[in-house]
Amino acid sequence: MRIAVIGAGAVGGFFGGRLAQAGEDVTFIARGAGLRALQTDGLHVDTPSGAFSVRPKATGDAASVGPVDLVILGVKAWQVPEAARTAKPLVGPSTVVLPLQNGVEAADQVTAEVGPGHVLGGLCHLIVFLTAPGRVQNMPGLEPSVTFGELDNRPSDRVRQVQEAFGRAGVKAIVSPDILAALWTKFLFIVAFGGVGAVTRAPIGVIRAVSETRAMLEQAMQEVRTLAAARGVALPADAAVASMARLDGLSPAATASMQRDIMEGRPSELEAQNGAVVRLAAQAGVETPLHQFIYQALLPSERRARGEIQFPA
């Protein structure tokens, strides 16, 4: 399968690396230090089961690659519109685009750029980060997996082919019977984890042990359940209970990616996570006071990270 991976960060690097290691025809579309690292030193991935290195094709010019079978968007949620524009030369009549971002808006954003009929709903589960350009660290505690499906939930040959490609790479690939519910179930988990973590600046072991902050996690999840119902999304009845169980099972030192970005002064996925809850709730006429507090409290730090305002750290 001809595959283009847009983004040489942690998520794109891990899944693109696995696919390249398995012999798929993978090209990374990257820029800056990430592109230079791939072109000079290749891609190095450390996993709990061992490390591997590959030397995939890498370019900063998507037009030079031409149409492919599969485009994987491995960028941060706030970079999706730009990544989707980058993907346009890669999209032919039978190309499918698989976004793997946190949040629930990526599929619509990509469709707006590449047109209807090309986009799958998708998400991923793993603990992964960059240690340096071209170097990915996959941590234990969560088996890496991808979940995806047609946006109308119909079975399709192209979904089966994508699943088989991931299977050849040794990646757990799940075709969801209801991809919208799957996206919102992860959304419920990640916006509570990331938002409460970023506001408290504490690891999950502390947050879940302090009754007041544990209650914040539960309230944040309930607000997302209410919002999902208002938008006609049928979440599993145990979505919040299962998400709390996942948080209880994490290493006490664990933090969410948005939390780490905010604490380290980098642009984050705030707008795509808690900000999205606030926006979508306003559209649906639903009250989400905790998410509104989290979003407003973190907004100054987010705007400072983006160079829009200045104040001492």
Notable traits:
2 domains, 5-stranded parallel beta sheet, Rossmann fold, 4-stranded mixed beta sheet, 313 residues, N-(1-d-carboxylethyl)-l-norvaline Dehydrogenase, domain 2, single chain, alpha/beta, 12 helices
Task: Give an overview in words.
It is globular and about 50 Å long. It has 313 residues and is of the alpha/beta class. The strands form 3 sheets. The chain has a 5-stranded parallel sheet. The protein contains 12 helices and 12 strands. The protein has helices spanning 10-21, 32-40, 80-87, 106-114, 157-168, 179-200, 204-209, 211-230, 239-249, 257-263, 274-284, 289-305, and strands at 2-6, 25-29, 43-47, 50-54, 57-59, 68-73, 91-99, 120-125, 128-132, 135-138, 145-150, 172-175. The protein is 46% helix and 20% strand. The chain has 2 domains: 2-176, NAD(P)-binding Rossmann-like Domain (Rossmann fold, 3-Layer(aba) Sandwich), CATH 3.40.50.720; 181-305, N-(1-d-carboxylethyl)-l-norvaline Dehydrogenase, domain 2.
Distance between the termini: 47 Å
Largest sheet: 5 strands, parallel
Report the top-level CATH class of the largest domain: Alpha Beta
Which regions contain 5 or more consecutive residues with pLDDT less than 50?
A: none
CATH architectural category of the largest domain: 3-Layer(aba) Sandwich
Q: What structural class do helix, strand and pairing data support?
A: alpha/beta
Given the C-alpha coordinates, what overall shape results?
globular
Beta strands, count: 12
Task: Please indicate the percent range of residues in DSSP E strands (runs of 2 or more).
Answer: 15-25%
Tally of discrete structural domains:
2
CATH superfamily of the largest domain: NAD(P)-binding Rossmann-like Domain
Put simply, the count of helices is: 12
Radius of gyration: 19 Å
Give the strand order, joined by hyphens, for the main sheet. 5-2-1-6-7
